[in-house]
Structures are given as structure tokens and as C-alpha cells.
Amino acid sequence: MVKDYFSLRMRATKEQQHISGAERIITAARIESAAAKLIRRAREHAHGQADVINLTLELLENEITEISSLPIRTIKQDDYRLARDEVKDLLVQLGINKQATSKAINLLAKGANPKGENMRGAVIMELTSANRLEGDQFRGVRASRMDYSGEAKERLLKLLEDNELNRTHIPEALALASKVVAHRQIVAELCWSDDPDYTGGYVANQELGYCRFPFLKPEGLGRGGRVFFVQPGLDLSELVDYLEQKPVLVTQLNPNIKEYQTITEVITNAELG
Ligand code: AMP
To answer: Along the 273 residues of the chain, how does pLDDT read in single tens digits?
Structure first.
């Protein structure tokens, strides 16, 4: 018998400000325990205790696509300015116009919405023209409906622990990035957190993997975001439908975790092209 899968999504606010969000793709047997965990997470968030918690539980009608997680590379550059230069080099190597790479970094650094604040979702940037394609530049496009199978998640947490890597931020970002760059017209994703206490960020690409930089911004800075770089001439509504609606489950874990000094080493090792 084919099992039914559900999308469970949590969003919590405190004094009408977003403080926490998370989502799961689960079978019926796990609904109650997953809901309890998400509620606990919203109530114990570092940004304060939520006063409104929204939970949405929805039977998934779309077929679930199963994918593998991206390999994890760490580029050990502890000066965030030099790390941003490495990011630019990497993006240019991936075929993204130089002007688009600088524009993307500047947007995340100053706040990518028209008021210079953080967006809730991502910028969609055409990689040749550097034009922004997302319909709503305040909200952006939010990737949703992605998660790990129970087994893949367990193995990932163990792998991160063995490699002394962060187990709170990386799993969710890795699932998101693995879904995002699995779309054939998204060449890369750039992300750094808007959490003032978390300086890490990454560039993700299907061939190169999840290239994380422990320092992509100075400590204490509350500006961050995501940019999805796309091929010219793409079907935007198909892309947005994929990102928002198509359920994707990471069922295979790529166990490849390595450290590098520069992005050139990553590229050489991946034998791009
Ligand atoms: P976070 O990694 O949660 O600190 O998020 C950093 C930034 O990425 C946020 O300010 C949003 O602009 C963007 N973002 C967060 N979640 C998503 C998502 N599910 N899809 C697209 N963009 C997101």
C-alpha cells in the first residue's frame, strides 16, 4: 500500500514579528510527535517565546520527488570580506555575470527588500542581466515542502556530530538548498542568515555541492537573505510552483564532507564541467 504523506508547517510570531518557522514531510504515524516538537521549538526560541503559533497540516496530493543531499564543503576563511570575494569567484566560475554577483551580495548586506529590510523569501535573479524576477520584492519566493526521510536525517545528524558541525542551522538549510538547486534552471543559491548571532552562509550548486563559509558577515549584523540565480528565459510560474508546492524528500545522504582553504581547491576537486 502506498503511504499518505503530510506537509506539516509551523510559523510563530511574537508581537507580530516572525521568530520561528519550520516544516516537515511525514507519514500519519508521526503527525502528533512532529507537531509537539514544532510547538516546543516555537515556545523555546532564542528570540523569545512565541505568542502566536500557526500549524498547518496538509495531505500531499502531489507526488513526492526523492533526491540526494548535496555534499558539504567548508571553506575555512575567517575574514568575511575575503570570504565574500571567494563567493564572487565561485559564482563567476558557475557562469554568473560579475555584476549579478556584486548586486546579490550588496542586496543581502543592506537588506534586499525595497525598504532595505530583510525579505521573508528569496530574490530570484537572472544570471546574465542581474534583473530581479520575483513578483513581490518585499516577500520574495519561499521554498517550501522539503524534508528528510527519518533515516537520512538520523545519518546526517550523526555525520555533522562526527565532523563537529552545527546541527541546528545546517540540516534545514541543506534540505532547502538541495531542493532549490535540483531545479535544472537554478544554477546556484547564495545565502547568509539574518540571525545576528549566526555568521555562516553558503553557495549551493548541483555539481559543487553545499559550499559553506563559517563567516560571511560580521557578528551582530541582522541583515541576510537568499538569492536564487536562474537561467535566462525560464518559465517563472513553473519555477515558483516547484519551489513553493512540489514536495521533495531527501532520502539519500551524500556522506562527502570536506574542508578547503579556497574555492579554487573546491572547483579543482570537483572537476567542474
Ligand atoms: P535563515 O537562514 O532562516 O536565517 O534565513 C535567512 C534569509 O533567507 C531570510 O531572511 C529570508 O530572506 C530567506 N529565507 C528564509 N527561509 C526561506 C525559504 N524557505 N525560502 C526562501 N528564502 C528563505
So the answer is: 568 999 999 999 999 888 889 999 999 999 999 999 999 999 987 777 899 999 999 999 989 999 999 999 999 999 999 999 999 999 999 999 999 999 999 999 999 999 999 999 999 999 999 999 999 999 999 999 999 999 999 999 999 999 999 888 899 999 999 999 999 999 999 999 998 889 999 999 999 999 999 999 999 999 999 999 999 999 999 999 999 999 999 999 999 999 999 999 998 887 554
Residue 171 Cα distances to 82, 146, 156, 176, 235, angstroms: 25, 11, 8, 9, 29
Contact 23 CB / ligand 1 (< 6 Å): no
Give the mutation target among 25, 47, 134, 191 for probing the ligand 1 site: most ligand atoms within 8 A of CB.
Answer: 191
Which residue has its alpha carbon closest to ligand 1 atom 23? Answer: 121
Q: How many angstroms does the Cα of residue 120 sit away from the middle of ligand 1?
A: 6
15 burial via Cβ count (<10 Å: 0-12, 13-18, 19+): exposed
